[in-house]
Amino acid sequence: MTIAITGASGHLGRLVIAKLKEKVPAADVIALARTPAKAADLGVAGREADYTKPETLARALAGVETLLLVSSSEIGQRAAQHRNVIDAAKASGVKRIVYTSVLHADTSPLGLAAEHLATEADLKASGVPFTILRNGWYTENYTAAIPGALATGAFIGSAGDGKISSAARADYAEAAAVVLTGSGHEGKTYELAGDSFYTLADLAAEVSRQTGRTIPYKNLPEADYAAALLSAGLPEFVAKLLADSDIGAAKGALFDTGHQLSGLIGRPTVPLATTIAAALG
């Protein structure tokens, strides 16, 4: 079985490949990346695959049986980019596509859900067997803000008391590897999230506990939070995305109690405190 992973040089793609190498021979895994040289250290064959260049996709998917389509990071362009990959996969005879969507995409208030739903519809219409992994938030999305919070003395956000069922990125990568190498997943949609939940105030309290400092959480209006992210140097679309995601979290978009992620990987998801400790370490 030949398994290819798009976005292989990214955070998630790298982890998926590492997990796959524990399950299948490295010769059966192909890293697909816009710049293959960035994935050269992964210990598997690499091929150029640019979501915006169908000619690269046709070459990249030759002989591939199972494809992990890691969603593009280019907000506003993703549906069209993913459609290019799905079309190329169908033309190349790929036997199954596994796609990384977003938690509860069909009911989510998140602005980014619409593009994921469009891709899910394209997958269903393609005729290629598929599995949809609706990934919840990565805990690292929030622990990445720890250095800034320590520097300024507070976490900021717009999530209010919203419950967040995040998991470590490695948990989602392991789930992808299980689905890619297993059977019985065709046609299924998995809602993947952490076993436990927290609020951003809980996150701040745990960082405070581990650092011995008092780092409170300050809730801001969406526009103020986006402006703060802009002033910190984030691109405008990223600032707006993060602010929108926090508003969505306040409405329950990142909360789930189904335990499908831990069910797939056969162990509890990594606790918040552990991911915080790794970030601080």
Secondary structure elements and their pairing?
Layout: E1 3-5, H1 11-21, E2 29-33, E3 45-48, H2 54-60, E4 66-69, H3 78-92, E5 96-102, H4 113-126, E6 130-135, H5 140-143, H6 146-152, E7 155-157, H7 169-181, E8 189-192, H8 200-211, E9 217-219, H9 222-231, H10 236-250, H11 260-265, H12 272-280
Parallel strand pairs: 1-2, 1-4, 2-3, 4-5, 5-6, 6-8, 7-9
Helix pairs in contact: 1-7, 3-4, 8-12, 9-10
Describe the protein in words.
There is one protein chain. The chain is an alpha/beta fold and about 280 residues long. It folds into 2 domains: about 5-135, Rossmann fold; about 140-165 and about 190-255 and about 270-280, UDP-galactose 4-epimerase, domain 1. It has helices at about 10-20, 55-60, 80-90, 115-125, 140-145, 145-150, 170-180, 200-210, 220-230, 235-250, 260-265, 270-280, and strands at about 5, 30-35, 45-50, 65-70, 95-100, 130-135, 155, 190, 215-220. Strands 3-2-1-4-5-6-8 form a 7-stranded parallel sheet, sandwiched between helices. Strand 1, helix 1 and strand 2 (about 30-35) form a beta-alpha-beta unit. Helix 8 (about 200-210) crosses helix 12 (about 270-280). The chain is globular and about 55 Å long. InterPro entries: NAD(P)-bd_dom, NAD(P)-bd_dom_sf, NmrA-type_oxidoreductase. Pfam families: NAD_binding_10. It comes from Methylovirgula ligni.
